[in-house]
């Protein structure tokens, strides 16, 4: 499956495992990379020295390319970037912020840089900043998301038409069939998040993984747009937020209710009542806990099978 993206990253298959907070540690990233995809460490839930530890362990666990995902809105971003440069991480995905702040710096140290966007406008800005590729993420995706509420199927062709660099599709992709659909719409590869949460290698708490497997259509919602939009499972904490909305709560009240460490409490510590449980709409399609390497192989097998089924229309 050699194409522009697999050649850019030096990987066998154009499948990227998203660098999700509280899920994407060295075990998951190395397993995906060893299977031929691109594993990403999720720096958003790591202190700088914890990130360094995960980079070093990932390097020992795989001799294949891997990378780090860095949300640019975090307060200790400079220290995270320092660790990435010192450890000579070859590939960096940035998100949730202005790519012009760090792209040139990272590229000057030999990094391949990719930025996650939710609109054509931000894709063009990222390309102008010199990134090597962009991830176009539809609002189906879990975690922090764009306010535009543009679906992946609508977003991909728009971004493809606007840019000249490789395009990675994200949001609602949990199977080889979905990967094929994304590629048909112009993507050079896919970024998969939620499906890799339901793996033994993901560092998420078993309680959270269990809730993901129970999810059905309508189990998630994109909320907290007044702060930073986030898609989460509906649980008692979510219901608390909805009650605040019904009361006409201000952004400040919502921020106070959110507090600190809410995502860690839910996804890493397993508090299903008070925690924030970030996952995509596609959780409704996930019903098995499957090893990460097996998932990569399943994606490729199903992609190829479905490709052979397609026939020209008369």
Could you characterize what this model shows?
With 314 residues, the protein is of the alpha/beta class. It has two domains: 4-203 and 287-307, Aldolase class I (TIM Barrel, Alpha-Beta Barrel), CATH 3.20.20.70; 206-282, no CATH class. 42% of the residues lie in helices and 15% in strands. The protein has an eight-stranded parallel beta sheet with strand order 1-9-8-6-5-4-3-2. Strands 7-11-10 form a three-stranded antiparallel beta sheet, with no helix packed on it. α5 (103-108) links the parallel β4 (91-95) and β5 (112-117). α3 packs parallel to α4 (77-86), α8 (176-184) crosses α14 and α11 packs antiparallel against α12 (251-258). The protein is globular, with a radius of gyration of 18 Å.
Distance between the termini: 28 Å
Helix content: 40-55%
* Helix/strand/pairing category: alpha/beta
Compute the number of strand runs: 11
Would you identify the CATH H-level superfamily of the largest domain? Aldolase class I
Largest sheet, if any?
8 strands, parallel
Number of domains: 2
Name of the level-1 CATH class of the largest domain? Alpha Beta
The strands making up the biggest β-sheet line up spatially as 1-9-8-6-5-4-3-2
Percent of sequence in beta strands: 5-15%
Radius of gyration: 18 Å
Please state the average pLDDT score: 94
What is the CATH architecture term of the largest domain?
Answer: Alpha-Beta Barrel
CATH topology assignment of the largest domain: TIM Barrel
- Number of helical elements: 14
Spell the H/E element sequence: HEHEHEHEHEHEEHEHEHHEEHHHH
């Amino acid at each position: 499956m050699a194409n522009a993206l697999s050649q850019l990253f030096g990987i066998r298959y154009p499948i990227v495992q998203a660098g999700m907070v509280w899920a994407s540690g060295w075990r998951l990233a190395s397993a995906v990379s060893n299977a031929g995809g691109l594993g990403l460490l999720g720096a958003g839930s790591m202190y700088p020295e914890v990130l360094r530890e995960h980079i070093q362990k990932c390097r020992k666990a795989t001799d294949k390319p891997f990378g780090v995902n860095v949300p640019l809105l975090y307060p200790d971003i400079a220290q995270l970037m320092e660790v990435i440069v010192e450890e000579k991480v070859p590939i960096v995905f940035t998100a949730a912020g202005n790519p012009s702040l760090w792209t040139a710096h990272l590229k000057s140290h030999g990094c391949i840089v990719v930025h996650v966007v939710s609109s054509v406008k931000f894709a063009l800005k990222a390309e102008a900043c010199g990134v090597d590729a962009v991830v176009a993420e539809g609002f189906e995706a879990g975690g922090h998301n764009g306010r535009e509420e543009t679906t992946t199927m609508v977003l991909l062709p728009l971004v493809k038409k606007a840019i000249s660099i490789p395009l990675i599709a994200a949001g609602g992709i949990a199977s080889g069939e979905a990967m094929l659909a994304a590629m048909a719409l112009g993507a050079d590869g896919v970024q998969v998040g939620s499906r890799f949460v339901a793996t033994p290698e993901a560092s998420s708490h078993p309680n959270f993984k269990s809730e993901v497997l129970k999810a059905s259509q309508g189990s998630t919602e994109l909320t907290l747009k007044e702060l930073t939009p986030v898609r989460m499972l509906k649980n008692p904490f979510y219901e608390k937020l909805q009650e605040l909305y019904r009361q006409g709560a201000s952004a400040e009240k919502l921020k106070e209710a959110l507090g600190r460490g809410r995502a860690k409490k839910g996804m890493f510590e397993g508090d299903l009542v008070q925690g924030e449980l970030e996952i995509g709409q596609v959780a409704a399609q996930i019903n098995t806990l499957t090893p990460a390497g097996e998932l990569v192989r399943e994606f490729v097998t199903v992609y190829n099978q479905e490709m052979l089924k397609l026939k020209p229309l008369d």
